[in-house]
Structure prediction request, 323 residues.
Amino acid sequence: MDVSLIVSNILNPPVLAFFLGILAVLVKTDLEIPAPIPKLLSLYLLFAIGFKGGVELVKSGITQSVILTLLAAMLMACIVPVYTFFILRIKLDTYNSAAIAATYGSISAVTFITASSFLTQLGMSFDGFMVAALALMESPAIVVGLILVKVFTVDESDREFNWSEVLQEAFLNSSVFLLVGSLFMGILTGEHGWQTLKPFTQDMFYGVLTFFLLDMGLLAARRIKDLQKTGFFLILFAILVPIFNAGIALLIAKAIGMSQGDSLLFSVLCASASYIAVPAAMRLTVPEANPSLYVSTALAVTFPFNIIVGIPLYLYGINLFWR
Prediction:
């Protein structure tokens, strides 16, 4: 693999801000971002990426390529939790296995945004409809994870879900709602809307992403301590499974004829793990699962692995497959 790709990715201001956050915790500074601000930054990023995706979707139209990509995205969101569940059952109980499997079946929007920034820096094009794939992949893993709990829990009488609440949490949580809503706003307003909001949705974007990744660095460094309780199994899982998922994604991308830029974003979606939407849903519906396991693996291991090494690694794989 070309080491210069990793260096180029690391020497990106948002990624450097992530390292700065980690360093701030390691040297025990009092740097802290007040609680409401990271939520606002997260909402901004979701709105900006969704709105731009809607505008780009209008330009590309609903083609066979778009439909195949969205179907592939939903397929991966459904099958990843199933096989990761059985891998996790080697060491963990049903509840924790299902919660972690759902976490890895879903996606990290910030990893997707970082990969988009990486492609822009390299001058590689990608299609705006990939944001629709992002939106479609967030929720199915939650439902699949809960079905796995329902099927594999020994005492069925203890596992009565209120499915209306489950589905509402899966498909109408704030991140999914805002992402899909802003996507439709972009579709309805098109280029005129983009020009109107461009100072907000584009000019501010990388500054907000930089500050958000600073907060992610602070959180990730604090979560590393939780992993001391899990041993090497989950740490290896949090690195090797994303690589495996990305490999499957690249095979699918090659088979359906995705461009290199879209293939990278698709592989990143499949390799990432949710640390916001799914943990919130799992806390509500599977309280027996330990949050320190599924949050720490996603945020303290998989997230930094992907933004530092994973994204250049998946691009290297694309260069080999597409050569």
